[in-house]
From TrEMBL:
It comes from Haloarchaeobius litoreus. SMART domains: Tubulin. Coiled coil: none annotated. Belongs to the CetZ family. It is found in: Cytoplasm. This is Tubulin-like protein CetZ. Residues 338-357 are annotated as: Disordered. SUPFAM superfamilies: Tubulin nucleotide-binding domain-like (SSF52490). One of its GO terms (cellular component) is cytoplasm. Pfam families: CetZ_C (PF21011), Tubulin (PF00091). The gene is cetZ.
Length: 357
């Protein structure tokens, strides 16, 4: 799928760069344009992709300090500039636009939903969000911000693929220490999904293409991605059990949104050497995904790759009824209440307020 990526905020910019680099190193050519937008000048200076600083009048290049309402305002005020900056980058060949953001901060959290809305007004291709949910251990500001941002961005985007910051790193690693691991995994796994069907030689009937990704995300709402891989055997026959077993791991342990299984639609992509991908294994795994997700819309396809490993990617569309989302929204709601209490106490201690007597 030919895509243009727009990172908003610090996490959004870093991930956009990581995705663009992976795509370039693998020679997939799925990423046709990349831009990082932020209110913090120093965050942009560390990136190699094209960048755009917004909100200079309001925050003078210092970021919005976790204030996502301010993040949304700044994006709205500078929307014309950002859209002008994208002119020429989003060409007719682009099949989708991805707005990439950490939903817990200020700039990405507030700015992403505004930018998605603006993009949808102008472009005909689907506009998706790749959103990062704060891990359980992150502070209440992050949780509350992400709750509001998620609610808004899901309404605006054609679909929102979520990666939970607790999902794609080893247990025991703190979220901050794990950023590198998470970002590498996102670049590889989301990168492979985007590249499915791109730059593929000897395209056969069973090769997955962009329309299957778009159709899987068509129902809107929240989506997630599962991934697992294993050493491949010599022949396709040798890999029948491997394909079913990695598909199971992708859905149960390798998912970007733990516990999200019930889905409106799904796509199973099996990547590996074309002669090592077993038709029988893929078909068996696809019908297993059907049983697990309860969806009758489970697509399947191959992604020919010159690799000794065999990998399964499971894209689930319409997972918003999952217990994981309910649990997160409850956490966000409690965090917002806690924050309101903190603000309330702060008012009592405010020296600028006169005591009554
Ligand atoms: N996976 C991942 N998450 C990150 C990374 N950096 C920050 N985050 C997460 O993103 C959220 C914070 O968002 P940031 O992108 O840092 O903030 P911002 O959008 O730049 O907003 P301000 O700093 O308030 O202007 C938190 O939930 C972090 O855990 C990263 O490199 N990788």
């Amino acid at each position: 799928m030919k895509v243009v990526l727009i990172g908003v905020g610090q996490a959004g910019g870093k991930l956009t760069q990581a995705l663009a680099e992976f795509d370039y190193e693998m020679d997939f050519d799925a990423v046709r344009g990349a831009l990082a937008v932020n209110t913090a000048k120093t965050d942009l200076q560390t990136l190699d992709i094209e960048t755009q600083l917004i909100g200079q009048d309001r925050v003078r290049g210092h970021g919005v300090g976790g204030d996502n309402e301010l993040g949304a305002e700044v994006m709205q005020e500078d929307a014309v500039e950002v859209m002008d900056g994208l002119d020429g980058k989003i060409t007719a060949e682009a099949e989708a636009i991805f707005v990439v953001a950490g939903l817990g901060g200020g700039t990405g959290s507030g700015g992403a939903p505004v930018l998605v809305r603006e993009l949808k007004r102008v472009y005909d291709v689907p506009v998706y969000t790749l959103g990062i949910l704060p891990g359980r251990g992150e502070g209440s500001m992050y949780q509350a911000n992400a709750g509001r941002s998620l609610k808004t961005v899901v309404r605006e985007a054609d679909s929102t693929i979520l990666v939970d910051n607790d999902a794609w790193h080893d247990a025991g690693e703190s979220v901050e220490a794990a950023f590198d691991t998470i970002n590498r995994n996102i670049a590889q796994r989301i990168g492979l999904l985007l590249a499915s069907g791109e730059n593929v030689e000897g395209v056969g009937e069973s090769v997955v293409d962009s329309s299957e990704i778009i159709n899987t995300l068509r129902e809107g709402g929240i989506a997630c991605l599962g991934y697992a891989s294993a050493a491949g055997g010599e022949t396709a026959e040798d890999n029948i059990n491997a394909v079913t077993s990695i598909t199971r791991s992708a859905l149960f342990t390798g998912t970007s949104l733990p516990d999200a299984v019930t889905a409106d639609a799904a796509l199973l992509v099996v990547a590996g050497r074309p002669d090592a991908i077993p038709r029988k294994g893929v078909e068996r795994a696809r019908s297993w995904v059907e049983d697990q997700t309860g969806s009758l819309q489970v697509r399947g396809g191959d992604f020919p790759l010159d690799s000794d490993r065999i990998a399964a990617l499971v894209l689930l569309g319409g997972v918003e009824r999952s217990p994981r989302i309910d649990e997160f929204m409850e956490r966000a709601r409690q965090a917002q209440e806690e924050q309101e209490q903190v603000d309330h106490t702060a008012n009592f201690q405010n020296d600028e307020l006169d005591d009554l007597f």
